[in-house]
Amino acid sequence: MVDTNILVYATIDEAPKCGEARRWMQRLQKDGVQLCATPQIYREYLVVLTRGSVFERRFSSDEALATLNDTRPAFRTLSPTGDTSEKCTLLLQRYGVRSKQVHDANIVAVMMTYGLKGLATFDFSPG
Prior knowledge:
Layout: H1 4-11, H2 18-30, E1 35-37, H3 39-50, H4 61-71, E2 75-77, H5 82-95, H6 101-114
């Protein structure tokens, strides 16, 4: 599963980790690994691109959507199911997840639903 920050870095030339994110994604694809994302990750991506300056670049809604649409063919989109909601609820209860971490728990629940074990991210801080 590719987290929002990897997607942002990989698609914005001005991003400081652009090259690293692109090389990582290309290496995985070359090794036959299917990159995955969720509709939630796509929405978060659009939020980041349209909320103001991103690495000294401004995106209109149309530009952000075009960038996402250019990128999406590289990904398998994994949508939540009814089982995902149950898994997310269990994660919230088990780990006391709160606030913005609920969004992360939902991504983990989708990963659990589809049997994915790894999340690619540059965000290593809790919350």
